Amino acid sequence: MAESLENVVFTEEYVMNCKEHAIRCSISISNGAAYSLETVNRRMAKCVSELGLSSLSAGAQELATKEMSGELRQIMKHCTGATENVYAAKDLLARIFDSSTITNAMPVRNNGGTPYKEHCDENVGYWSRKGGCFIVHGPAFTGTFLLALLATASVNPKIVTQKDIAKIDNRMDTMVSVMTHVLQEKNALKDRITELEEQSQLHSNVTEAIGLRIDHLWDSLGPPTEDGMYRFTSVSDQLHAESQREMVELKTGLHRYVKALKDVRTHCQLMDIRLTKRMELLENRDKKWPWSRSTQDIDNEGAEDADTLADNGKATHD
C-alpha cells in the first residue's frame, strides 16, 4: 500500500490531523490495555483471597488458581497483541506519509475542485479499514472487555509504551507465582496451627492434672512456706513425742496385763489346791467317818489353807 501511494500528494494540515488521530487511538488502546491488566490484577487478588477463606479442599483451591492463572495469561496475551497491532498500524501510517508528497496547499483544478481530495479520502479510508481490522484481531470477548474498560478510563491518559506493557506482564506472572506460593504456605500454616492446637489441648489436660495434684497436696499438708517449701521438723518432733508416749502407755499396759496374768495363775493354783484338799478330805471322811464331819468344817480348813498359800505367793512376788 505504501508503494501505491508514493506519488500521492497530501496537505500538511491533513497529515498532521491523521497523525494526531492515530496517536490518540494508540494512547487509548495502550491505556485501555494497562487499565484492563490493572483491573484484572486486583480482581484476581481478591478472588484468590476469597478462595483461601472458602471451605474448598487444597486440591480444589489449587485447581481454581491454575484456571484463573490461565485466563489471566490469555487476557495478557490479547492486551499485548492489541498494543502491538496499534503500534504497527501507526508505524504503517507514518511510512505512508513519509513516502508521499506533502505540500502546504492543495492545487486547484480549472473547475475549482481539488484533484486529489477524493483519492486521498479513498486511501485514508482504506488504511482505516485495514488498521481497524488489524487492531480488533483476536477473540470477541477481549474487544468487549477492553471497550467496557475504556468507558471508565481517565480523561487525560498517560502514554503507555509497549515496554510498559511487557513490564506489567512480567509483574503479573511474578504476582501469580507469589500468590500460588502464598497459598501453599497458607495451607501449611493451617496444618501447623491445627497441630499446635492439639498440642495445646494436651498440655492443658496435663496442666489441669498437675493442678489437681497440687490441690490435694495443699489439702493434706497445708500451705507451704514463703519459699514454697514444706518443712517437717516440728511435725517430726511431735510425732516422736507421741510415739514415746504411746510406748510408755504400751509398757504400762503390758505390766498391767502381766500382773493380771499372774493373779489369774495364782487364783488358778488356789482353786487347784482347794479342789485337791477338798477331794482329799472327802476321800478320808468317807473312809474313816462317813458323814461324821460337816461341810462347814471342811470349808474352814480350806480357807485356812488358801490364806497360807496366798501369803506364800505374795512373799514370792515381792
Report on the structure:
The protein is mostly helical. It folds into two domains: 194 residues, no CATH class; 83 residues. A two-stranded parallel sheet has the order 1-2. Helix 2 runs antiparallel to helix 3 and helix 2 runs antiparallel to helix 5. The longest helix is centred in the middle third of the chain and has 60 residues. Keywords: Coiled coil.
Identify the notable features of this structure and list them briefly.
mainly alpha, 7 helices, 318 residues, coiled coil
Mean pLDDT: 70
Q: Main sheet? A: 2 strands, parallel
Q: Which structural class do the helices and strands define?
A: mainly alpha
Low-pLDDT segments: 1-6, 108-116, 126-160
Q: What integer value in Å does the Rg equal?
A: 63 Å
Distance from N terminus to C terminus (CA atoms, Å) equals 158 Å
Helix content: over 70%
The tally of helices reads 7
Overall body shape: rod-shaped
Number of domains: 2
Biggest sheet: strands side by side, in what order?
A: 1-2
Compressed to H and E, one letter per element, the order equals EHHEHHHHH
Strands, total number: 2
Strand content: under 5%
Quick overview of this protein structure:
With 318 residues, this protein is mainly α. The protein is 80% helix and 2% strand. It contains seven helices and two strands, in the order βααβααααα.
